């Protein structure tokens, strides 16, 4: 499980005792990584308050939320490669400082254009935080403790991703939307102070040059494709905005592959994808984000629309997922140290599959224990995939490529999230509207163009049905429950299918890798030194 130790390391001469230094590294890096993960999801619940204050349109609000993901995806691989070449500590400091300044700018932004710019800078800087954090922690700990350390880091990350919406609602309720961003600033200062006295520098001991053509083409391609999937709900799949950016993105990615394969120092060594362990990590990251972006959208929607819980109760009901991630991740890290990542990843997707099966049967009469069991299973899956996927990626490459490995897998992570949410919501709307039209026919009411609005606005769906279809409150409420159940079932069955595919794929890759273990030494002699064979 240990990557090749071929990095250039600098001797630590700081003020912290060497024995405790690695734990201070983990603390400082976890803070900035946690902030980056929170900012990926925290703005969702602050969006209505921002919209009222700055008088934004729905499209502008989606831009504020989603431009972060576009920037994150654009620079993920580049950030990982820069950390390998220039030095991980140096790049982490720069990314953390930029994140703090961008958070300050976003919190003080007086208008939408400036807020969008600072959100873009937040996303770009978080590409550094995500890629550098795991490689720095991996380098700081010995092999025997690496899984535990990365498990702890990703427990913190998982909590940040999961509690972001709830925390955003609490901050907005207690203060205002500005503090959703401003709260980052003092924590960034604390993290920088801890890192400044604990981190040592490490980077690849090579004369590798940055692949600038590949960098530009990859950024253009990823941003185009991610934009298309992210904003399809805003503009529509047939719009020129979506089709145009998708075409530009796909073309740029095709040219990137052609150009990058001819470079002396390619941005992405494509032979990595022939590495079964690395391919397992890519599959896991893509499928993980595919699952949780859709599930985290539908779970609170079910609790609010069908069960009519308030925001505090919804937050408490989400605790089985977030608490499970927090408790299990460090334990899972130790398990990875003992049995390797493949078995753990396979188990994680089995838990995701069971969770999605249970959630596909949610309705107004589902018991609290049944709902909690589904949410706990999701937390188990999350804990068994998030950290082990990073361990698999780092274990598949030598340390001098660790930043690149994390950047590449997180790029697939972001792409999986965009694709998952787009497909999940398409199924939810399609099956939900079909159930709505069938229910209206049963009630003797006539469907109209407004049915799409009912599905798109579940919070006011019952009122819209009373207004347009003339239904009474009980009938309207029952119809809303049925349309949600139909849409939710379709989206969750999609997650069942993708989780099963991921589980089987990773299991098969693990078996193939095990079969090839006896040939690794011989094969490695035929491979480039920086690309392990399995």
UniProtKB/TrEMBL annotation:
<dbReference type="GO" id="GO:0005886">
    <property type="term" value="C:plasma membrane"/>
</dbReference>
<feature type="transmembrane region" description="Helical">
    <location>
        <begin position="23"/>
        <end position="43"/>
    </location>
</feature>
<feature type="transmembrane region" description="Helical">
    <location>
        <begin position="314"/>
        <end position="332"/>
    </location>
</feature>
<dbReference type="InterPro" id="IPR036259">
    <property type="entry name" value="MFS_trans_sf"/>
</dbReference>
<keyword id="KW-0813">Transport</keyword>
<feature type="transmembrane region" description="Helical">
    <location>
        <begin position="91"/>
        <end position="110"/>
    </location>
</feature>
<feature type="transmembrane region" description="Helical">
    <location>
        <begin position="278"/>
        <end position="302"/>
    </location>
</feature>
<feature type="transmembrane region" description="Helical">
    <location>
        <begin position="149"/>
        <end position="171"/>
    </location>
</feature>
<feature type="domain" description="Major facilitator superfamily (MFS) profile">
    <location>
        <begin position="25"/>
        <end position="514"/>
    </location>
</feature>
<dbReference type="InterPro" id="IPR005829">
    <property type="entry name" value="Sugar_transporter_CS"/>
</dbReference>
<protein>
    <submittedName>
        <fullName>Major facilitator superfamily (MFS_1) transporter</fullName>
    </submittedName>
</protein>
<feature type="transmembrane region" description="Helical">
    <location>
        <begin position="116"/>
        <end position="137"/>
    </location>
</feature>
<keyword id="KW-0812">Transmembrane</keyword>
<keyword id="KW-1133">Transmembrane helix</keyword>
<feature type="transmembrane region" description="Helical">
    <location>
        <begin position="237"/>
        <end position="258"/>
    </location>
</feature>
<feature type="transmembrane region" description="Helical">
    <location>
        <begin position="490"/>
        <end position="509"/>
    </location>
</feature>
<keyword id="KW-0472">Membrane</keyword>
<feature type="transmembrane region" description="Helical">
    <location>
        <begin position="370"/>
        <end position="397"/>
    </location>
</feature>
<feature type="transmembrane region" description="Helical">
    <location>
        <begin position="339"/>
        <end position="358"/>
    </location>
</feature>
<keyword id="KW-1003">Cell membrane</keyword>
<dbReference type="InterPro" id="IPR020846">
    <property type="entry name" value="MFS_dom"/>
</dbReference>
<dbReference type="Pfam" id="PF07690">
    <property type="entry name" value="MFS_1"/>
</dbReference>
<feature type="transmembrane region" description="Helical">
    <location>
        <begin position="63"/>
        <end position="79"/>
    </location>
</feature>
<dbReference type="InterPro" id="IPR011701">
    <property type="entry name" value="MFS"/>
</dbReference>
<dbReference type="GO" id="GO:0022857">
    <property type="term" value="F:transmembrane transporter activity"/>
</dbReference>
<feature type="transmembrane region" description="Helical">
    <location>
        <begin position="177"/>
        <end position="200"/>
    </location>
</feature>
<feature type="transmembrane region" description="Helical">
    <location>
        <begin position="212"/>
        <end position="231"/>
    </location>
</feature>
<feature type="transmembrane region" description="Helical">
    <location>
        <begin position="404"/>
        <end position="428"/>
    </location>
</feature>
């Amino acid at each position: 499980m240990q990557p090749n130790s071929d990095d250039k390391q600098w001797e630590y001469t700081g003020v912290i005792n060497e024995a405790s230094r690695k734990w201070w590294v983990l603390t400082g890096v976890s803070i900035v990584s946690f902030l980056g993960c929170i900012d990926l999801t925290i703005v969702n619940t602050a969006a209505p308050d921002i919209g009222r204050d700055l008088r934004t349109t729905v499209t502008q609000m989606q831009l504020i939320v989603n431009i972060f993901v576009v920037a994150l995806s654009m620079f993920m691989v580049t950030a990982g490669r820069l950390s390998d070449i220039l030095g991980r500590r140096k790049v982490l400091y720069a990314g953390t400082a930029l994140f703090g300044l961008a958070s300050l700018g976003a919190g003080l932004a007086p208008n939408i254009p400036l807020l969008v710019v600072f959100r873009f800078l937040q996303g770009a800087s978080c590409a550094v935080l995500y890629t550098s954090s795991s490689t720095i922690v991996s380098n700081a700990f010995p092999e025997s403790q690496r899984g535990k350390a990365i498990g702890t880091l990703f427990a913190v990350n998982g909590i940040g991703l999961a509690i972001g919406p709830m925390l955003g609602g609490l901050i907005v309720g207690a203060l205002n939307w500005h503090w959703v961003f401003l709260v980052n600033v003092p924590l960034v200062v604390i993290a920088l102070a801890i890192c400044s006295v604990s981190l040592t520098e490490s980077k690849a001991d090579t004369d590798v040059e940055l692949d600038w053509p590949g960098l530009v083409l990859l950024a253009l391609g990823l941003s185009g494709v991610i934009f298309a999937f992210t904003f399809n709900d805003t503009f529509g799949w047939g719009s020129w905005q979506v089709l145009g950016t998708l075409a530009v993105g796909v073309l740029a990615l095709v040219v990137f592959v052609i150009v990058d394969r001819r470079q002396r120092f390619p941005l992405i060594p494509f032979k990595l994808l022939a590495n079964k362990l690395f391919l397992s990590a890519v599959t896991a990251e893509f499928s993980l984000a595919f699952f949780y972006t859709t599930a985290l959208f539908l779970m609170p929607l079910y609790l609010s629309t069908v069960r009519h819980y308030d925001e505090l109760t919804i937050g408490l009901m989400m605790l089985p997922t977030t608490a499970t991630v927090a408790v299990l991740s460090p334990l899972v890290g130790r398990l990875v140290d003992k049995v390797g990542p493949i078995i753990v990843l396979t188990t994680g997707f089995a838990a995701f599959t069971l969770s999605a099966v249970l959630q596909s049967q949610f309705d107004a009469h589902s018991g609290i224990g049944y709902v909690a069991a589904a949410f706990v299973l999701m937390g188990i899956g999350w804990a068994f995939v998030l950290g082990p996927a990073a361990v698999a990626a780092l274990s598949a490459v030598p340390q001098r490529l660790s930043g690149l490995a994390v950047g590449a897998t997180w790029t697939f992570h972001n792409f999986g999230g965009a694709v998952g949410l787009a497909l999940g919501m398409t199924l939810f709307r399609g099956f939900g509207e079909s159930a709505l039209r069938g229910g209206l026919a049963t009630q003797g009411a006539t469907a109209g163009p407004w049915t799409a609005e009912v599905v798109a606005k579940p919070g006011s769906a019952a009122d819209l049905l009373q207004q347009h279809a003339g239904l009474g409150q009980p009938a309207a409420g029952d119809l809303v429950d049925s349309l949600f159940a139909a849409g939710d079932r379709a989206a969750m069955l999609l997650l069942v299918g993708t989780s099963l595919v991921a589980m089987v794929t990773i299991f098969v890759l693990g078996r193939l890798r095990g079969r090839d273990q006896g040939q690794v030494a011989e094969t490695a002699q035929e491979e480039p030194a920086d690309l392990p064979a399995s």
